[in-house]
Amino acid sequence: MSRPGPPHALSQPLDGFSDRVLRPxxxxxxxxxxxxxxxxxxxxxxxxxxxxxxxxxxxxxxFLTTENLTNVVRSVSEIGIISVGMTFVILIAGIDLSVxxxxxxxxxxxAVLLTESGWxxxxxxxxxxxxxxxxxxxxxxxxxxxAIQSFIVTLxxxxxxxxxARIWSDGQGVPIAYGGGPGTAPDAFSVLNDRVLGLPVPxxxxxxxxxxxxxxxxKTTFARHIYxxxxxxxxxxLSGVPVTRVKVVVxxxxxxxxxxxGIIHAGQLNxxxxxxxxxYELDAIAAVVIGGTxxxxxxxxxxxxxxxxxxxxxxxxxxxxxxxxxxxQLLIKGLVIIAAAALLSLRRQEV
Amino acid sequence: MTEIPPLLEMRDIAKRFGGVRALRGVHxxxxxxxxxxxxxxxxxxxxxxxxxxxxxxxxxxxxxAIEGAEISxxxxxxxxxxxxxxxxxxxxxxxxxxxxxxxxxGRELRTRLGFADRRRMRVESGALLERAxxxxxxxxxxxxxxxxxxxxxxxxxxxxxxxxxxVMDEPTSALAEAEVEQLFxxxxxxRAQGVxxxxxxxxxxxxxxxxxxxxxxxxxxxxxxVTVSDASQGDLxxxxxxxxxGDLFPKGEIELGEEVLRVDRLTVVPRRPKPGRAEPRDxxxxxxxxxxxxxxGLMGAGRTELLETLFGDASSGERSGSVMLGGEPLEPRSxxxxxxxxxxxxxEDRKALGLVLxxxxxxxxxxxxxxxxxxxxxxxxxxxxxxxxxxxxxxxxKTSTGxxxxxxxxxxxxxxxxxxxQLLVKPRLLLLDExxxxxxxxxxxxxxxxxxxxxxxxxxxxxxxSELPELLGVCDRILVLRGGAITxxxxxxxxxxxDILTAATATRKEAT
Lengths: 351, 512
Prior knowledge:
The complex is a heterodimer.
Chain A: H1 29-36, H2 38-53, E1 56-57, E2 60-61, H3 66-91, H4 99-114, H5 121-145, H6 150-169, E3 174-175, E4 195-196, E5 199-200, H7 201-219, H8 221-231, H9 233-238, H10 243-269, E6 271-272, H11 280-290, H12 302-321, H13 326-350
Antiparallel strand pairs in A: 1-2, 3-6, 4-5
Helix pairs in contact in A: 1-2, 2-12, 3-7, 3-10, 3-11, 3-12, 4-5, 4-6, 4-10, 5-6, 5-10, 7-8, 8-10, 11-12
Chain B: E1 8-17, E2 20-30, E3 35-39, H1 46-53, E4 61-66, E5 69-71, H2 76-81, E6 84-87, H3 99-103, H4 118-131, H5 147-160, E7 165-169, H6 177-192, E8 196-200, H7 207-210, E9 213-218, E10 221-227, H8 233-241, E11 259-270, E12 283-288, E13 292-296, H9 303-310, E14 317-325, E15 328-329, H10 335-341, E16 343-346, H11 350-354, H12 361-366, E17 374-375, E18 378-379, H13 381-395, H14 411-425, E19 429-433, H15 441-456, E20 460-464, H16 468-474, E21 477-482, E22 485-491, H17 497-505, H18 508-511
Parallel strand pairs in B: 3-8, 3-9, 6-7, 7-8, 13-20, 13-21, 16-19, 19-20
Antiparallel strand pairs in B: 1-2, 1-4, 4-5, 9-10, 11-12, 11-14, 14-15, 17-18, 21-22
Helix pairs in contact in B: 4-5, 13-14
């Protein structure tokens, strides 16, 4: 490894480039890299810690077994999918507190539609996704048109979505049974409990959602609009960015992905309940923050969020493997969030 | 016997911002019971000097002495502690609190039990307000006061701190005539009590009414100090302007083309009038292709509001009169619509309105013209990068790469990024609001050359500026605004700075 150079090694004259910001004197390059890819770095640290502390079975590290690793991905798939939507929202300096409730609404709805209402799989899934999309778009519209902060609009949306879910199922959890006959769900829905190519289906959906989101945020004009709005909304508007439209679409995406997570939730648990997804919005926000996205908007990546979600999942997994008291688990998760935020804040001061 | 030292002496003050020298070898002296005006064009260094005096900038060269004792301020609180109170243009008051609460903010009087002693604060507030020359109920919310009254509250707050030196930054820019008179009465009263006042103003016509001496700064240096009663307004202007900037303004002969913009009796009546905004009032003018038309006027004269109206970013309200762009009516409801109609806008405050500082040079340059580099919403980053690389070279933007965050560039280079954005869009009509503010002379010259080139290519340009040499050097014609209305149109070839200032500052009585 190369040693850090003398303080002035990096500040050789750069004719014509005097405005370039040079790296702070004497800081080793690898520290810079850790800062830049903070979430990936954090993920690596947690993985190493997981391997080191994992219990073993017949000489095999349980954490590293294929089964365990794929389970980790499956277990984070719901929060992960929601976090992707949350990333979009936070990038425009908004917040969506309703996503957990939309998970509950969508899980309840899909369970009722597939069993009691006897709908086919595609119409039921389509309707629930449409409801999530519309719900999000409405929140975005209200927030922009009435100039109410998204925090408040989605806090209200949270109540509305939970209320709708309870009304829909009379406040009851709705079990999803298979096997044909009246009141049972189409067998195809149970695919959510299957594996394809050795990977749990929810994990595959999560990976696909993440890939599409990464593509969108790297390649589209829409992404440019998002980053511009989050960085400086006034400047974005004066540059001709259709601010209202972009914001509405972003909230619609968050709603759509929350509904998708709700469907997966119902499929995995074989039931849908109005109380599903309780507090998911906070886990999603935590994943986004650990992933290095700024709550002030304009800075952040989906890659970071995916790493953040996985980091939390691995943490949960290793704590569970070691039979750590669930209450202590909460404590440790809290400390990890603080550590991530502190790193982020340090990085900002450096720049 | 030793000489009594002056109340305030600033010796050999120098200050740099990065590579830009903002102040050099400045001497400034203030006597007991003196009102000393500080005048100069925008960017001359007035604000830097008062920011040093009020403790905002603590890294400067030179010495400050109060009553002979050398002092260095590390923070605004330090300065206040030493008896230097500053009244900024944006007042440091909390709108949702009462007048009394504001006066005692941070040093609330307490009862013996440690609770806030509201009664005593109210009584003492009354006395302070009286000294500041206003009679208002101290239990009123600050929000409910007019701007002039709020300013007097700020003065009362300074008195509460036993300020010996009061720095006032453009105190009359937002005031109505009657409020100005009241303010002057208070300032004279303070002078009689031995308080020294540093009075920063653009309005030369009001100096004889309040000031004893005036110090003129230009390009970061003191040009001279005069006794106000001995100097005419013309003398002061001559000192402020100094030598003509010569070939800073390269505009060659440009054949003017057809009329691109025609504004006829444009008036905007806002639904909710905002204080300090002067909406366009019965404005008529035209701009031809290749022509650069200047907008002059004091702060609050309505230059920005006129440009914003043309760009579809005005206050909502009733609009009458007509605006035609290339023969088509121009009534944009949003900046997007204005851009699509062929209007470009470089806003006044590039950091707050012109740029997304956290984003890269590339993202900033292309944000208004993404469709040029995209098919079906998908960006072609290769084409984008090469277009930006070309613009970086063309405009001489000093940046390591297009991927560098705009935040890391100097002011002049940031402004070039804003211009690069306009070059991509290629508007027929380009609106510029103070495009060279906070930009060093070299970058200024480059921006002027660019404007001249764009005009040569047939663009119609409107340039709002507070810098008179700039208006005279760059423009073909200059429209002088006051209260949202055009008072005079001047030909830049024959007009002088005095003409513009006279039209813009003529006593307010005349204006109404």
